[in-house]
Amino acid sequence: MIAALLPVAANVLHAVTSSAPSTASATAGADFGEVMAQASSDALKTLKTAEATSMAGLQGKASVQQVVDSVMSAQRTLQTSLAIRDKAVAAYQQISQMQI
To answer: Tens digit of pLDDT for each residue in 6-21?
Structure first.
């Protein structure tokens, strides 16, 4: 299931990072696109790990505690991703309502 979503997520991520203008900043650190790209790849890795651990648990290769831990981690990751998405949508809506 997650494997089917990976190409879509990669395309969206590539579109977001490639369309952002690359400007040299005087401050040290990564730009917003790089941070979001890293966060999304970490989230996908967490979800894939949870799915693999769940499958291992069904096959009897992983303990119940390992399965629960990985699923709870995936749930926290998903909730965080949804909260970030909601904040981004709210910010976009506020900006679009501003008068020029």
So the answer is: 555 555 445 544 544 4
